[in-house]
Design goal:
- The protein is an alpha/beta fold and 193 residues long.
- It has one domain: 3-Layer(aba) Sandwich (Rossmann fold).
- The strands form three sheets. Strands 2-1-3-4-12-11-10 form a seven-stranded mixed sheet. It has a three-stranded mixed sheet with strand order 5-6-9. A two-stranded antiparallel ribbon has the order 7-8.
- It is globular and about 45 Å long.
- The mean pLDDT is 96.
- The structure holds glutamine.
Length: 193
């Protein structure tokens, strides 16, 4: 069976482990390069992207994760995880870097702070019914390059979910609203890889 890792440096790791487990996947927490070598796919959780970035460099994980992405490992990032997958961050703080891979530009905290968090119903490419999406200090995808493809947009057209090959990113948190279809899609990528 496929073994999927959740990068467990900071953020809502537990919620992802639960959704993946409910879908029948074997999960592992990933903090070290050697743990990365034992998984078939990786989830980058929500949290604080600048902190996850800093810790990933402190733990010697940045280059191994970049190498895994370049080698085609399926990776799904939610919120902070989407920021970490983006090739370009419009407003990085503190010399913040990303792993990259998704040909998109993101803007962190695009909707404002915690009090501007909101939930909404979203139509998603390939899903029969809308997704209940929770946006928590969420980023926006402000530019989609030619290699990436938008999967979902707000009613005003602003992009909040993207896919590119084996990479998947959502500005919102399906793992906190009982929505498992993105994780199921990610597991399909893992099984096919
Ligand atoms: N604002 C956070 C960041 O910039 C993301 C918030 C989240 O993951 N819910 O990383």
């Amino acid at each position: 069976t496929a073994r999927v890792g959740v990068l467990a440096l900071q953020g809502d790791v537990r919620e992802h482990v639960r959704v993946l487990g409910d879908l029948g996947a074997e999960t592992a927490l990933v903090r070290r390069p050697e743990e990365l070598a034992r998984i078939d796919g990786l989830v980058l959780p929500g949290g604080e992207s600048s902190v996850i970035d800093k810790l990933s460099r402190a733990f010697g994980m940045q280059q191994p994760i970049r190498d895994a992405i370049a080698a085609g490992m399926p990776v799904y990032g939610t919120c902070a995880g989407l920021i970490l997958l983006a090739d370009r961050i419009e407003n990085p703080i503190d010399g913040q870097e990303s792993f990259g891979g998704l040909d998109v530009t993101v803007r962190r905290n695009a909707f404002g702070g915690q009090v501007e968090s909101f939930e909404t119903e979203l139509a998603v490419d390939g899903f029969a019914t809308p997704v209940h999406a929770a946006f928590i200090r969420a980023p926006l995808v402000t530019a989609v390059g030619p290699r990436a493809q938008p999967l979902a947009s707000l009613p005003d057209g602003r992009v909040v979910a993207v896919a590119q090959g084996n990479l998947l990113g959502t500005a919102f948190h399906p793992e906190v609203s009982g929505e498992s279809r993105f994780h199921a899609r990610f597991l399909d990528l893992v099984r096919a890889a």
